[in-house]
Predict the structure.
Amino acid sequence: MLPANKSKRWIKDLDSIIAKRKVSYALLESALGRLNHAASACPIMRYFLGRIRSVLTSWDVSNKTKKVERYLSSQVLEDFKIWKDTFLPAVSKGLSLNLITYRRPSIICWSDACPVGLGGFDHTGRAWRFKIPEKFQQFVKNKNNCLEFVASIVTIWQAIIQGNTEKEDCFLSLGDNSSSVGWLHKANVDSSKNLPLFLASRKFADIMISNNVCIYSQHIPGVSNTIADALSRRFDLNDEDLTLLINSSYDLQVQNSYKLYPLRPEICSWMTCWLQKCSAMKESQKTQEIRKTECGDDGSSIQNPLVSQTMCGYQHCSESTKLTSSAPLLPPCEGENFLSQTRKAWSLQQYKRPWQNWVRSLGQTWGTTPHMELDLSHYTPYLPDNSRV
């Protein structure tokens, strides 16, 4: 918890920076140090310190005085706003340790996306899909990584709005796009080169902080993401036909309570707004000029025509041939060990050494977190044995 007096003073300084749209080196350095300190209470807040830090590192050494102020870009100001409106008020109220410690996931969700649409579902059987309007499809055809990231956000958002979660729940987000899986925790991409990503990430952070939930992410092969893949692509089928297809073809991967729910209006509204901003940024770019190619006359044929007559080499076979084939193979991930493989993949990820180092009180002793056991027999799976993913 951040003390009340510090919270008020820090928010007041951020209000001053946002109102003036410019800042001195000393004030920016002080604000960055404070925000970095507050981010220790919630790792997702570090997501929005990179652009602020880049302004500080690019400052001219000769102008590091209190009188010299520098104007900030709109994206840096947006980061300050989310700190003032969402992050600092949450830290001042206090954040539960359950949101920053290693724990067992309580909700597992899958998602996928393509330039035609997005889709996802969770382990309770609640599924959704969203078809991208045709007027926006041309603007997102080269932004599949961002679409995968947005699909992960919407899957979590839909579960929260439907009342399928509780306070301090932990999500396990599974996806077949390594970039979107990594972006759920950090992004080393310049905002000027991928602005749609940062527009979505701010919404994602607001959802996580406002609802007091945390998230793990994990990559899975594309062949294991068959249901989410169908939800994001099979718009040739209506909801009833798609539900029948999934229940009949992938019955080992879904709950008996599987059902396709319509996307909530507030999510549809935000998705449309996000697509409009993507299209506006695309249209503002300079169009590439296509050079006209000059075509010459085609040359004359040098092939001599054949004088021989064609002969049919087909001979009728009186013997009847009967094709033999083996039984069809099961679709990918439809084996009986689907659930056990999913559990094993999650378990192995938790035995890796954490990237963070922890310091004890008074800063006298440094060390990494203790090693976990490598014996999987003592590890309780994140779902009961009789549960079905």
Residues 107-281 form a domain with the Nucleotidyltransferase; domain 5 fold (CATH 3.30.420.10).
